[in-house]
Design goal:
GO terms for molecular function: hyaluronic acid binding. InterPro entries: C-type_lectin-like/link_sf, CTDL_fold, Link_dom. The chain is of the alpha+beta class. It contains twelve helices and six strands. Helix 5 packs antiparallel against helix 6. The chain is flat, with a radius of gyration of 28 Å.
């Protein structure tokens, strides 16, 4: 985008000149819709069943614990019950929150990348030690038995996990700063190579019939009222927020606003692309933040691209060349960059007319 787009609390947009890519923009998702969805996700019959099961298990466990012969054994069982109960609740909440994407390959790739980044972080070693010390502090404050016979299983597991992380992050630091070997870079390279091999095998499989997907019409010349008509040109319909979100969860991203149902203008940005942009101070906000950028725009006459949902047409030669060119740079090109590209192309055509000087007075070239 050439301009900066700012959404205030009512999502009113003051600037209307929008070019190819959003820059320095305040981007908001549909927060009210997300809050309503969160409430709907929590108060469901399924969650009620989980709560009922938890209460029943709690009752039986409480009766069982009352049969303990020593105070230490009762305390041990109680600690295990509380810790494992909280872990189960956390797992269920995590599953419900991510149930739409938890079984997709891009989601787990993102989680793996985050874990590798965590292990490679120089501060992880210290933070792991502090967490372990915090665990010991909680154990001490609550008087949890820590003898070999009475130590709760849950505490043993948590203690083992933290010690394991301390050892692993310690090895990573040792190899990085003592031996000069970055283990995490090696793991990332191997993972990327395996991923490429898997993708090549998948690409070689017979293609199935055409499937519907979200695709962005990049010309920022359309109002919201024109958006549906634009999609109809491709025998498609205007995409919904959920469809754009699903595209993001399966690896989609395009750094360009697109009108979407509900008078929203949205575009997804992958975390991996966002992280690359952070290395360029002048471009770190060019494509928003990881996730779904944009939101509701009160003015339907703003001109954006369009997010359509349907069978995506085959890319033209220019489209494919532009895609390859975008792979060469992690940030979108500014109008000045595009103007310079045009000049370079013209200079290439006229390079025979350029005057080159000899290396010196006696020879043309050094070699």
């Amino acid at each position: 985008m050439d301009n900066n787009i700012e959404n205030d609390t009512t999502n009113i947009v003051n600037e209307t000149n929008v070019d190819n890519l959003p820059q320095e923009a305040e981007r908001e998702t549909s927060s009210l819709a997300r809050e309503d969805q969160l409430v709907a996700d929590i108060f469901t019959l399924q969650n009620g069943v989980y709560l009922g099961i938890f209460i029943i298990v709690f009752g039986f466990t409480y009766i069982y614990m009352r049969k303990g012969k020593s105070g230490a054994s009762i305390d041990t069982r109680m600690v295990d019950f509380i810790v494992f109960g909280l872990i189960i609740i956390a797992i269920l909440a995590f599953f419900l929150q991510n149930r739409n994407v938890i079984f997709t390959e891009p989601y787990w790739k993102s989680q793996t990348d985050d874990f590798i980044e965590y292990l490679d972080n120089d501060y992880s070693f210290i933070s792991n030690i502090l967490i372990l010390l915090g665990l010991y502090l909680v154990v001490y404050v609550f008087g949890i038995p820590m003898t070999k016979e009475d130590k709760p299983i849950s505490i043993r597991i948590l203690e083992g996990i933290m010690i394991g992380l301390i050892v692993v992050t310690g090895f990573v630091l040792f190899f990085k700063y003592v031996l000069g070997i970055d283990l995490m870079d090696i793991i990332s390279d191997v993972s990327a190579e395996l991923s490429n091999e898997t993708k090549e095998e998948s690409d070689n499989k017979p293609a199935a019939g055409p499937s519907k997907e979200v695709f962005n019409v990049g010309n920022n010349n359309y109002t919201y009222k024109e958006a549906q008509a634009v999609c109809s040109v491709f025998d498609a319909e205007l995409a919904t927020f959920d469809q754009v979100e699903n595209a993001y969860n399966t690896g989609g991203e395009w750094c360009n606003y697109g009108w979407t149902q509900g008078q929203m203008a949205l575009f997804p940005t992958q975390k991996s692309s966002w992280k690359k942009l952070q290395d360029f101070p002048q471009h770190k906000h060019d494509c928003g933040r990881p996730g779904i950028n944009g939101g509701y725009f009160k003015n339907p006459y703003l001109k954006f691209g369009v997010n359509c949902y349907g069978v995506k047409p085959d890319g033209s030669e220019n489209d494919l060349n532009r895609m390859k060119a975008n792979q060469a740079t992690p940030y979108p090109k500014s109008p000045e960059d595009k103007e310079m590209d045009k000049k370079i192309e013209n200079w290439k055509k006229d390079k025979d007319k350029m005057l080159l000087n000899s290396f010196n007075k006696t020879i043309w070239s050094k070699y």
